Amino acid sequence: MQEIGKKIEEAVVAAVSEAAGQPFTGQVLLQETRREFEGDITVVVFPLVKLLRRSPEQTGEWLGAYLKEHLPEIDRYNVVKGFLNLVFTGAYWVSFLNDLLRTEDYGLKKADDESPMVVIEYSSPNTNKPLHLGHVRNNLIGYSLSRIMAAAGNRVIKTNIVNDRGIHICKSMLAWQKWGNGITPEKAGKKGDFLVGDFYVKFEQEYRKEVEQLVAQGMPEEEAKKKAPLLREAQEMLRRWEAGDPDVLELWKRMNGWVYEGFDVTYKALGVDFDKIYYESDTYKVGKQIVLEALEKGLVYRRDDGSVWADLRDEGLDEKVLLRSDGTAVYMTQDLGTAVLRYNDFHFDEHIYVVGNEQNYHFQVLRVLMKKLGYPWADRLIHLSYGMVELPEGKMKSREGKVVDADDLIAGMIETAREMGEELGKLEGLGEEEKDEVFRRIGLGALKYFILKIDPKKNIVFNPRESIDFNGNTGPFIQYTYARIRSVFRKGEERNVTMPRKLSGNYLPNEKESFLTRLLARFPAVLADAAETDSPALIANYCYEVAKGFNQFYHDYSILNEPDDMARDLRLVLALKTGEILRTAMELLGIEMVERM
């Protein structure tokens, strides 16, 4: 499509230059034809109207006739107000399919040493609780985006920052000290991240009791929240941790080790990974040093209580604390250190943070602050702000233990896929191990697709059974379409049907064949758009359009039983390339396809 687009642009420039009597140096605007109109590509003629001194409709009719006369690829055209819709010939689409037949990895670009370097941060868990549904969306967006950016020709580094220090970590540690009685994951028969999460919830329960007692004694609630003994103890533990207290550090390492083992199991089940993992316990030290150097230069200032602040009011923001009065660091401090470490490691052209929209202001401050501190690459820091995930019954609450843990969600999705698949009679005749693998792929495919098909900026209400529907805009529907295509070729092998090396061009595609071919031709542009806008949703919904287009074609036309050899050959090529593009595009979402379903 890029090649024909370029030919149309050149022809438009030539036509307008000839008609205007002077070289046309403006931009030729091409876009995909809207679905309600006939056409393969649309020329926006509004920008030409003034120069040509004609109405939009007159301009469109004149230009359409010119293009049809000068470009053999144009079969016909129609004009809708200021839009010229061009329809390509059947011969053009046969030529396109022949090119596609000779092309491997259609639409994908390979990176080289000169390609842009893109660092993508996702996951960013705290080591005081297991990963939950919100983390699932984070990981799926980040991992899919890394694949999309790589497929678009970038060098990509997948990173994770583990928030392994801070007051929230100390809360779990303190609760284990007080009420754990030496329990370990092995003794409890639990994953380590689940065990530590239990103690985080326990801390919050006991802390709430203390606050209520202080309020009952007459203390204002806000004051009670700050003076509750448990919180004071946790704050002291954090101070001792930063001071290097060996007992606190030993407990911290032990409990974090439990959590990391649990995280690894979840990441593997979810199918995501990282090229490099950073730890806040390391990066905050770099951040503190950056802040202290900025203090010496007068770029930040110290208040009377000893805390260090940045004044960003001239930039339209507020004042931001960087070091507390006791010298301990805040999130912003570690993010300063992490950004500098990553730039030194990779000299990135772009750094994308996949972080929820509740942190919008944080990342706005981070960019402005880094520019203030003299880092010229601060504008390369991009926040991919995504919406929250809710359940039909409402929001999740980690402190109260009211969350959907990622492990439980994954297991539940696979079981739901099994139940629904067996209800529909899917996979009859397969062995149990084969069924287990197929249901795993269907369950995870449903989960990933449901989350990724929605624009990252929007909130999601996640409904597991709705996501596993084998009809409609779901992962299983697309997987089923791919399995249907693979079935065609298995039957073809049984009949000794061979793939053509080249289409003759004597059979021209009908309307539905042309429509499906046009969808396949869009893949490179969709991929480029998804990379440009950081949106896996564009890939997901493209997959649905292709799957739907194939099923509409397949419903009306036979492939293997078609008596006309040339028609059958074209349909074989169309089916083959539809399957390949669906598999490639779904892989960009981290979704595995199934051969039988």
Explain what this protein looks like in three dimensions.
By secondary structure, the protein is of the alpha/beta class. The protein has 3 domains: 2-88, Gyrase A, domain 2, CATH 3.30.1360; 122-279 and 332-400, HUPs (Rossmann fold, 3-Layer(aba) Sandwich), CATH 3.40.50; 406-588, Isoleucyl-tRNA Synthetase, Domain 1 (Orthogonal Bundle). Helices cover 56% and strands 11% of the residues. It contains 22 helices and 14 strands. The protein has helices at residues 2-20, 46-52, 56-70, 90-101, 133-151, 167-179, 185-188, 192-216, 221-227, 229-242, 246-270, 280-296, 331-346, 360-372, 406-423, 432-452, 464-467, 475-494, 511-521, 523-533, 536-556, 565-588, and strands at residues 29-31, 41-44, 74-80, 83-88, 117-121, 155-162, 276-279, 301-302, 308-311, 319-323, 350-356, 381-386, 389-390, 460-461. Strands 7-6-5-11-12 form a 5-stranded parallel sheet, with helices on both faces. Strands 1-2-4-3 form a 4-stranded antiparallel sheet. A hairpin with a 5-residue loop joins strand 8 (301-302) and strand 9 (308-311). Helix 12 packs across helix 13 (331-346). The protein is globular, with a radius of gyration of 29 Å. The two termini are 33 Å apart. Residues 396-401 have low confidence and may be disordered.
Short description:
It is built from 22 helices and 14 strands.
Core attributes:
alpha/beta, Isoleucyl-tRNA Synthetase, Domain 1, 4-stranded antiparallel sheet, 597 residues, 56% helix, Gyrase A, domain 2
Beta strand count: 14
Gross CATH architecture of the largest domain: 3-Layer(aba) Sandwich
Strands side by side in the biggest sheet: 7-6-5-11-12
Corresponding CATH superfamily of the largest domain: HUPs
Strand content: 5-15%
CATH topology annotation of the largest domain: Rossmann fold
Mean pLDDT, nearest integer?
94
Radius of gyration equals 29 Å
Name the helicity range. Answer: 55-70%
Silhouette? globular
The structural class is: alpha/beta
Cα(first) to Cα(last) distance is 33 Å
How many distinct helices? 22
Which stretches of 5+ consecutive residues score pLDDT under 50? 396-401
Number of domains: 3
The CATH class of the largest domain: Alpha Beta
How is the main sheet built? 5 strands, parallel
